[in-house]
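If you are new to this repository, start here. Below is one unmodified record pulled from the training split, so you can see the exact layout before writing a loader.
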Amino acid sequence: MVRELMEQVDAGKWRLDDRAGVFRPTFTSAWVMTWQGLPQRLYCWWD
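And here is the target side for that same chain:
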């Protein structure tokens, strides 16, 4: 699991918080993950 998360860190989607010792998503990555979790009806008002 750590290897996979380190690959995400290299890709720029996650960052390693050295002080807390955990992986955290970058702001942009967190925004995209939140947006993808919304129901389609919520943001597709034209449908």
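Two things worth knowing about this chain: The mean pLDDT is 87. The beta strands are 14-17, 22-25.
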